[in-house]
Write a structure and sequence with these properties.
Layout (H helix, E strand, L loop, with lengths): L14 E3 L12 H14 L5 E5 L2 E3 L1 E3 L2 E6 L3 H6 L12 H14 L6 E5 L2 H12 L7 E5 L24 E8 L4 H15 L9 E3 L4 H6 L5 H14 L5 E8 L6 E7 L6 E8 L1 H9 L1 H14 L3 E8 L7 H4 L11 E5 L5 H7 L2 E5 L2 E5 L6 H5 L3
Parallel strand pairs: 5-6, 6-7
Antiparallel strand pairs: 1-2, 2-3, 4-5, 8-12, 8-13, 9-10, 10-11, 11-12, 13-14, 14-16, 15-16
């Protein structure tokens, strides 16, 4: 299907009225109503319309760019509303890949922009994208809502809560086998880290609600492998991911995300999105940070790159500064493989170096100063 590139115009043949649950009912919740206003703000078209390409609908089309408006609730979906398939069929990554696929199949090179209302959600997705967990061909745009132009349902002061994620641990590796065998390595990692801090002692399966999580038995190896297999089966693409389990207080704990074949075939990654209890402990104990990094690097070798970073630092301005030379998120503690082209420079800048597995863990100053040190790269 040919895409029209004339500025701010949407061909009638490609513009369809939205007949899903985003209708104009008077009973819509305030958040959904604000998101409809936000969609109009982003697309400059009525909220009940969307732009259709193949079997995928986009929120709009402006100045030769396909746009989607990600309003309030995206952060909550990413951080607390976990399901086994959140990064599988119908999840964020699969949806993004489908959008890229349908544009490519249409014979077009039209860019896709995701406008994100919540800065914390934008920052989190940007980090995921930088580290290869989210497709780099989706352009993420930090677009705060202009509530002054919303006639109703403006949020009360303090209603929009900031991210609960305090820290994040990531490690990208070359997979040694198929996703199921890699899942067994993940299970072994869980057994090792659960003794490092009380918030990591009990691991539960992710579910659709807090109530389901409270009633669920602890996750076991069979369920973990089943969720990996299930997500791989329903995914339309070789690259897939899932959030199969979490630990700590429900809604405020630590969420585990796994990805496979991202950003390249044969790669696998693990990310622990760290909540308040473990985050506070990391603030207070470098020994705990070292143990968490060392255990992860040792178990998942051969690793490529990894890091432990705190969430309160500004996101790198890619338009102004470009990506980091090592093409990964900055970290207070980072792992580089010994054959990495960045290993020598990391050695020069690090305040401490500890060999482990097929490389070393480098510490760059303190949790407050590491961005300044890494800016010297």
């Amino acid at each position: 299907m040919k895409l029209n590139s004339s500025p701010n115009s949407v061909p009638d043949t490609l513009m369809h009225k939205n007949i899903d649950t985003h209708g104009t009912n008077n009973d819509l919740e305030a958040t959904l109503t604000r998101n409809l206003y936000y969609k109009e703000q982003v697309t400059n078209t009525p909220a009940e319309y969307y732009y259709h390409v193949g079997d995928v609908s986009f929120d709009g089309y402006r100045d030769g760019i396909l746009v989607d408006a990600k309003g309030e609730g995206l952060l909550k979906f990413i951080e607390t509303n976990w399901t086994a398939s959140v990064y599988g069929n119908g999840g964020l990554v699969d949806g993004a890949l489908r959008r890229l696929e349908v544009v490519r199949n249409a014979g077009a090179t039209t860019p896709i922009h995701w406008h994100i209302a919540e800065h914390a959600a934008f920052k989190h997705l940007s980090n995921l994208q930088t580290d290869g967990y989210f497709p780099s061909r989706i352009c993420l745009v930090d677009s705060p809502p202009d509530y002054r132009n919303y006639p109703t349902h403006r949020p009360a002061p303090g209603q929009l809560r900031p991210s609960i994620m305090r820290w994040r641990l990531t490690m990208k590796r070359q997979a040694l086998g198929d996703p199921i065998s890699e899942g067994r390595r993940v299970w072994e990692w869980i057994q090792r880290v659960r003794y490092l801090h009380p918030s990591m002692a009990l691991w539960l399966p992710t579910s659709n609600s807090h109530q389901e999580s409270e009633q669920a038995p602890p996750i076991d190896l069979d369920l973990l492998l089943h969720r990996i297999h299930q997500t791989q089966t329903v995914s339309r693409f070789p690259e897939f991911g899932l959030t199969p389990t979490f630990c700590g207080q429900i809604g405020q704990g630590n969420k585990l995300m796994l990805t496979f074949n991202m950003p390249n075939l044969g790669h696998a990654s693990v990310e622990l999105m760290i909540g308040s209890a473990l985050g506070n402990a990391l603030d207070a104990s470098e020994d705990l940070a070292d143990a968490l990094m060392h255990t992860t690097a040792e178990l998942f070798g051969p690793n490529i790159i990894g890091g432990l970073s705190r969430n309160n630092h500004p996101t790198r301005n890619l338009d102004r500064d470009g990506p980091a030379p090592f093409n990964y998120s900055d970290g207070w503690k980072m792992f580089f493989a010994s054959d990495s082209p960045h290993y020598q420079r990391a050695t020069q800048l690090a305040t401490r170096t500890v060999p482990v597995a097929n490389g070393a863990i480098f510490t760059f100053g303190t949790p407050d100063t590491y961005p300044t040190i890494l800016n010297q790269w």
